[in-house]
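User: For a reading group we're discussing how well predicted structures match intuition. Take Fe2OG dioxygenase domain-containing protein. Before you show the prediction, I'll give you the sequence so everyone sees exactly what went in.
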Amino acid sequence: MAKEGIVVPVIDLANFPAELEKLAAASTEVGCFQVINHGIPVALLAEMKETARSLFELPEEVKRRNVNPNVIDGRYRPRNFEPNGKYHESFSIYDAALPSDVLSFCSALDVSPQQRKVITEYFGKLYGLMLVMASKVVESLGLVGRSFEEWSCQARVMSYKFTSQEDIGCIAAPLHTDSSFLTILHADECVGGLQIIDANGNFIDVDPLPGAIFVNIGDMGKVWSNGRLYTVKHRVVCKEVTTRFSIGLFLLAPKDGNIGTELAFIDAEHPKLYQNFIYNEYRKQRNKCEYKISDLALRVFKRRIYVVPVIDLANLPAELEKLAAASTELGCFGVSNHDMPMSLLAKMKEAARSLFEIPADVKLRNVIHNLEDGGYRPPTFSPKSPFYESLGIYDAASPADVHSFCSTLDASPQQWFRDTVKGTMQFLASAPPAGDCLVVNGGVLRPGRADIRWMNNRRTVLAWGRPPFILNIEGKRLSQNSNLDGFRRMSVVLVFQHTQTLVFGKLLGADTGRFSRPVYERFLTVLQEDECVGGLEIMDANGNFIDMDPLPGTLFVNIGDIGKVLIKSYF
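Assistant: Thanks. Here is the predicted 3D structure of Fe2OG dioxygenase domain-containing protein, as structure tokens, for the group to look at:
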């Protein structure tokens, strides 16, 4: 039995931004709400309900023309389509955001000119409302100006037909969560039956509210928000002997199908919960589950949570104990409040990107005779590293070496380029994260020469030196969910050695099954990771590979072999 008289939150669109706090609570705690003053005329809602009724009165052979081969389970679905679908019948529109798909739906069913007008106008306005609501929900979480126009938006017109008293109390749609990011439901305001589960496991009747639109968070909302948005479980039960109509619009996923977590919701306290995946792969997995509930369908996409410590340089010396534990037990950590301006990090990424776009004969001028493997390394340098390309500065702590690097490559005559490279080198080489603060056995570790290597990967990586042994990735693919085609992944690494080299590099291919094993002989490595493209992994004490999620504005630091030797194998 459901509890009576409990009403889900009601959001007044005419009262924004005053409603944002209320919307945030509804989206993160309840997972659903009803919307009033949404701008869709009541008369149009009524006309669409009557149009829906007429669609289900069409001959069976006409209904079956509603076929969407691009949708895993989308098309006309008669009653008994599934074992638990005794009462349920539905039509679908593949992407209701596309006028062509809406018109194709109308043409296939031979609807009248008036019905075509109603359907076209209705879904146009409902889609407009969807864009507004998705933007408002995200804004309530603190992100302003996000657009969902490039996301697919499937529509379903649904009927639940109850014909006898024995049907009352029966379940017409079993308990489930929606696979969408957001669902807008134009429910039948004359016939109840929709129920949600509250935090205590109680079924709550969602009483019809005349003129209101019901909105709920789906599985993709949970993934995209890194678990901040709450996915509500719901079902439909028979309340009376009649036919119940409802029309749903489902904001599914970006049109390229790739689903990932918004970077703004990932930080040291909130590690990434789910792998990136393709929406249709998720739907296939979901369809294998007996119960269409996010906790079950998403479990195969859950990531092993492994939190790398983040050292706050503004909180030293209070962080020293945490820093010592990270250095001696894990071998790596993140650094925040490192004083490197975000604007400089962004400019350095673009500067590195431009370096790999210069002609190969110019890149070959980058020769460092003092380094065993220094200077420019093309993708053909090693058969084990076909995606890897890099440039190097012998001693980034030396202004002369940095200037020589820029001059050798005819680096942009624009002063911003040289200033960016020099500014980055000065920050990293003169004041390395933890360089003046890492105390071991009473001794203070300070940087020597700074060896810089810029690595270019189709990710574009900027790395100083090469990361240490703890990051060995021989025989391990980059990441099974890192779709790198078309991406440039950029990171910057500064390695502090006993006496130091900066490396700029980039992975050129997307063959995630091939990777080389670098030589990690440095003392300390500082890595400015690409915030947009993952791929860095570490190996834990049990031999498991762990994805390292880029944290915006945070630098990654790890200990190398020389550090282990110098500190008597403490690291």
